[in-house]
Structures are given as C-alpha cells and as structure tokens.
Amino acid sequence: xxxxxNPDPALIAALRSDLSAAGYRADAVRSVWGSVxxxxxxxxxxxxxxxxxxxxxxxxxxxxxxxxxGVRTDRDAxxxxxxxxGAHGLVDLGFARIDGxxxxxxxxxxxxxxxGAPDDAEWWIASDLDEAALGGPLPxxxxxGVGGASLALAGLQLTTPAGRVLDVGTGCGIQALxxxxxxxxxxxxxTIVATDVSPRALEFTRINALLNEVEGIETxxxxxxxxxxxxxxxxxxxxxxxxxxxxxxxxxEYEYRDAGYAGDDLVAAFVSGxxxxxxxxGTAQLLGNWEYRAGQDGLQRVREWVAASPVPLEAWVxxxxxxxxxxxxxxxxxxxxxxxxxxxxxxxxxxxxxxFAAREVDAVGFGYLLLRRPASAIPAxxxxxxxxxxxxxxxxxGAHLGxxxxxxxxLEQVDDAALAAARTIVADxxxxxxxxxxxxxxxxVIELRQGGGLGRTLEVDxxxxxxVGASDGELTVGQLSDAxxxxxxxxxAALRADLLPRVRELVFIGMLRLA
Length: 515
Fold this sequence. Notes:
Strand content: 15-25%
Radius of gyration: 26 Å
Strand order of the largest sheet: 8-7-6-9-10-12-11-13
Largest sheet: 8 strands, mixed
Number of helices: 19
Structural class: alpha/beta
Shape: globular
Distance between the termini: 61 Å
C-alpha cells in the first residue's frame, strides 16, 4: 500500500524551490548519465544510468537517482539535495518512506520537456513508481507518468482559442497542463476540468498543477462524461484507457489503461458520448484502438461509430499502426510488467488470443481521432486515412491540424470557379524530388515532400508539379492551369477539372496555401 498523497501547497513550493536550485531539468539529467544510459532508461534498464551516477554526490545526481530512477538513496545525501523540503518533507508529501539511513521513494518526479511548446517549456511530473523501480509487475491502481502516447497526444493538441477544456482520464494531468500551456496567451485564461476514475490520479493532477504553478485546473471523479453531464466545452482531450483487455479471471485490469469495456467498446462509447459535451464548433482529440473483425476494415468501424453518434460529428481519423493479435497481446502483457519467460506470461498471452478469437479479430489499429461538432447541422469533414511513416519531430502538429481545419472551412465556402480565381503559394517546407531512369530525360516519378506537419510524400504528375512549382501568388490557379495545358498540349477544361480537386487537397494538407 503506497502512502497517501498530500498535495500541500507549502510542501510542494519547497520541493519546487529545491528542484530548481539543483538544476533538475531534462537536459541536465541526460548530460549526467549520457545518451546510451538515457536510451536504456527509456527501455526500462537502469543499470547504465546508475553506473554513471555512482561516483557523483551532487544534488542533481542525488535527485536523478532518487526521483527519476526511484532508487533508495542515502538519507544525508537527500537532505543535502533537498535543503528546503528535507527528507521528512518528502515523506509528508507521500513521496517517500524513511528506511533506516535511507530514503525509499514511493513516487517518481521527472523533468519533462515539451516538444513544440513556447519558451522551451518544461515541467516536473510526479507519478507512481514504474516497473523498473518496482522490480516487477505494476499494481492495478498505478498512475502512469509521461509516456510516448501521452507526448504524442500533447503534441497533437490544437492551439486555437478555447474557453472551456475537458481532459477525460487525466492520469497524472499531462494533457490538462498542455492545454493550459497552449492557451495561456489568449485574452481570458481557459477553464480546464480534469476527470478520472482514480482518486489517486486526481491527486497527482493537483500535485503537478501546484508543482508547475498552473492555476485553473479543476479535478472531478468519475467515468467518461458522467462528471460533466449537462455541461459543454470548446475542446475535449483524452488519452483514455483504450487498451483491449480480456474480461476473464486472472487478467489484471489496470486503471490507467483498462476501462472495463469489452473489445474496443470504450472508444466507441467515447465517440458516441462526446458530442453531448461539445459546444457548436467544439473539437475532441483522443487516442484509441479499433478492431479489424472478420475481415472488416477497422477504420470502417470507426466511421460507423461516428455515423451513429446521436449528435452529428465531423471526423478526421489517422491510423498510425496496425498489430496482429499476438503482437498486441505481447505488447500489453509486457507493459504490465510481466516479461517473456516469467511465470504467467504464456497464460496471459493465451487469454488475449482467446478473447480476440471469440470476436474474430485479426488485427488491431491504433491512431488519432479528431472529432468536431459542426456549427451547422450537416457534417462536412469525414476523413479516414493511414499515415504510418515517422512524423517530423518539430512538435507543431497541433498548429498544423488547426491550420488544416481552418483551410477545410475556407474551402467549403469556395466553389471551383472561385478556387480557379484564387492565387496559391507553396509552403516553405515543401520540396520536390524527381526520379529518372538511367539515361531518361523525363522523370519516371515526381514527389512532393512535406518537411513539417504530417510529413507527407505525394507522387504527382508533371501538371500538378508544374502548378505547385509556379505557385508564388502571382497568377491564379486557373491561369496556371491554362498555361500548363498549353505547354502540355492537352485540353484546358479537362486539365482544370483534374487539377482543382487536387489543389483543394494540397491546401488542406498544407502544401499550398491560398494567398
């Protein structure tokens, strides 16, 4: 049983002061143990980092050992590293126990840099000990720290103004913090409501808000949209407990990843219910899994969920990866801390495979959902796609998605005649690659490559490549199309009819913009 957390503002202020004085930041910790050890820590292996820390007794090294890795640390060293809070203050927060001459941490506090955030923002994030610190499987009430999925969703968050934000399944509060950061410069600060079924998760959210001096985050206990029934929000964000888990005896259910639903019903329930808490024009962003059953396309299942929503919704869904049942089972059995070759591993994998077989599941998709309640009664945006290549690491996906939505809304008001009369400008991050067969004068393949955003690569024909290359805002789309038709000696009307839909697509994805 872990100590009860105590989000005392004075104690947290003392901790913040000590962490700051020690220079306990992400880059500083990485520099202490080096790149190889840092990668090993990401894989749950602490040996190289502990070896690098062994000869050091300074405050930064002590805090890295105690709060980053979760290792028992000499009590006097902790007292020197936390001169304001002290070891007993750490105990009073519920972050540690005194064990003879040592301090045994019960909570991790890790520095976390925020990709794409203004002013190189960085947070300290408190969460429960991970499996590497525990040396075994996680307890079912574990509150997760910041993982890859959390960071992906944080980077996806829209940066357009929002007055009321809802974070469903807040966990340690990372998405609520990211929403506050994204919206802090708007004229009126946002109201942020963070919900979770775990009281301990809500305690961590309050602690992390205090630790990072963030105000305006309200926490509420409950599942999905129950805590906010009857309310509406401009934005909903969620990294929900979407993991597909067998509902049979012997399979642990982790609060941070399992919501007690069969199959992918949790994501379906979110899609079905989110429209009721979105105001007109409001958006929801979440991560999720969806099953491929008996040969049915997984994205088609998501499309059906959206179509069945009681409140009309627009959708932009991106599938990032697809796993077969065995790979999926092994991923989440290992995630819970049960390693291959250990007792119970095979039985857990078998339980997952039997569960999938019962529903004829042959694959599981993972990806991003962006849902919007349209201001009008008729949804217009319905985009379901697969983007599996690595994404640019500029952390600006939220801004890119917002720009794409704005471009879509603009294009909805522009008919073909108006688009032909418009001028376009190629984005600064677009490059062109031409591939030639040896000795051939004409290229066999022409590609447009996007350096930012979703990092798309599109194969295009010479006509569209010429239009993009000449898109400097001087001539209209129609003028460019007619000139290209004359150059290629093709019918001008037919070429224009072919190019205009593709120009719309390039404007939406950000390779072109309307001047």
